[in-house]
Specification:
Blueprint (H helix, E strand, L loop, with lengths): L2 H16 L1 H4 L1 H10 L17 E5 L4 H12 L3 E6 L2 H14 L5 E5 L5 H14 L5 E4 L17 H16 L1 H6 L3 E5 L13 H4 L8 H22 L6 E5 L7 H6 L1 H7 L6 H14 L8 E3 L2 E2 L12 H15 L13
Helix pairs in contact: 1-3, 4-13, 6-7, 7-10, 7-14
Bound molecules: NADP nicotinamide-adenine-dinucleotide phosphate (NAP).
NADP nicotinamide-adenine-dinucleotide phosphate binds next to helix 4 and helix 11.
């Protein structure tokens, strides 16, 4: 490693540990300037020509920015949202901005398991192969809310719906082969893994929306790692990432005080989308636990935290496959929860 690379790597680590600098716009800007191993090269401008990418939660913020970035790289982009009018508006804007792009509107409520099943089966009948799938849809509620199937809402939107979607689109992902990316959150670093049904469903004690959000964001990272293992031999890549702190309608409406305080340091939505887009467009080598931020793999546990407990992981995965009626992960087949 050259002296310049060593300095770059030290600065990158410092940014990561200071959180405010690393997660905000400074982190992305400094890392981009450092280049080299800290900020690997951009994808080629035509990296995704002839490829098909689906983004969930594409009607706002980071997902909307992703749609634009994927279209700029030549992909056919499927924008998935739950609000038909909002989706039509975002799709029209994307077609105006990138006139040659193929933009397809997909309507589905990711938190409703029946809707995901119906939509995924329809999608699989229309689309033979998918090259990129970004699980970006996200939510945070002040009170405990439940999905159509009675699951805590952030669990349904962040974990159960995306898991079911991945499972039902499995053959189309293998046909790509695809890169699947779960958009988690740096907030997951402060949350432990919930592994018994009451904790997973946030039924224990007073409900705290920020905590439920962070817990489900950690579940996403664990689930992505399990899917990476499951699809290892198929050519499908599965990663999770966190976008840092980006100025989006979601942050303003769910965390107004946070948005006010951090406003000056927030990155823009396109910077928040960058690592997910880069992962799909460049398919870098990665290793467990496959968790990324600013184009580099990051730790999923801070210094004082223990590594993920394999029994807790097994219990969570068993709950997820049970709640979604999907096949057990190969690594767990035959084991009891
Ligand atoms: N911004 C940040 O600083 C930050 C930090 C860490 C992680 N993240 C993650 O980044 C992702 C995008 O967040 P954002 O900041 O861009 O938030 P946002 O502006 O609120 O966008 C969230 C998107 O998810 C969609 N969505 C929510 N529930 C859905 C459902 N049940 N079915 C389908 N779509 C649904 C929303 O649709 P509607 O338009 O219909 O509401 C919207 O398009 C989220 O997963 C979030 O957790 C963001």
């Amino acid at each position: 490693m050259s002296a310049r690379s060593r300095v770059g790597s030290v600065v990158d680590t410092l940014l990561d540990r200071t959180v405010v600098l690393g997660f905000g716009s400074t982190g992305a800007a400094v890392r981009r300037r450092l280049g080299g191993p800290v900020w690997p090269a951009d994808p080629a401008p035509d990296a995704l020509v002839g490829e098909r990418v689906l983004v969930t939660g594409a009607t706002s913020g980071i997902g909307e920015a992703m749609g634009r970035s994927f279209a700029d790289l030549g992909a056919s982009v499927h924008l998935l949202g739950r609000n038909t009018d909002k989706l039509a508006g975002v799709a029209a804007e994307l077609r105006r901005a990138v006139p040659n792009a193929e933009v397809v509107e997909e309507v589905c409520d990711v938190g409703d398991l029946d809707a995901v099943t119906a939509w995924a089966d329809d999608f699989a009948a229309r689309v033979p192969a998918l090259h990129g799938l970004v699980h970006n849809a996200g939510t945070m509620t002040a009170e405990r809310e439940e999905s159509a199937q009675g699951h805590e809402l952030s669990l349904a939107v962040h974990v159960l719906g995306p898991h079911l979607m991945t499972s039902r689109l499995r053959e189309r992902l293998v046909a790509g082969p695809a890169s699947v990316v779960w958009v988690s959150s740096g907030g997951m670093l402060g949350a432990g893994l919930a592994s018994d049904p009451d904790a997973i469903e946030s039924r224990r004690g007073a409900f705290n929306g920020v905590q439920a959000y962070a817990r489900t964001k950690r579940m996403q990272v664990v689930l992505a790692d399990a899917w990476a293992h499951e699809l290892d031999a198929t050519g499908v890549r599965v990663e999770s990432m966190h976008p840092g702190w980006a100025a989006t309608p979601g942050v303003t409406s769910h965390l107004p005080a946070f948005a006010r305080i951090t406003g000056p340091v927030l990155r823009d939505a396109r910077e928040g989308a960058d690592t997910a887009v880069w992962l799909v467009a460049t398919r870098p080598e990665s290793h467990s636990p496959h968790f990324w931020h600013d184009r580099a793999q990051r730790t999923t546990t801070l210094g004082w935290q223990r590594p993920e407990d394999p029994d807790a992981v097994r219990r969570l995965l068993t709950y997820v496959t049970g709640a979604t009626g999907t096949a057990p992960f190969r690594a767990l087949a035959g084991s009891t929860a």
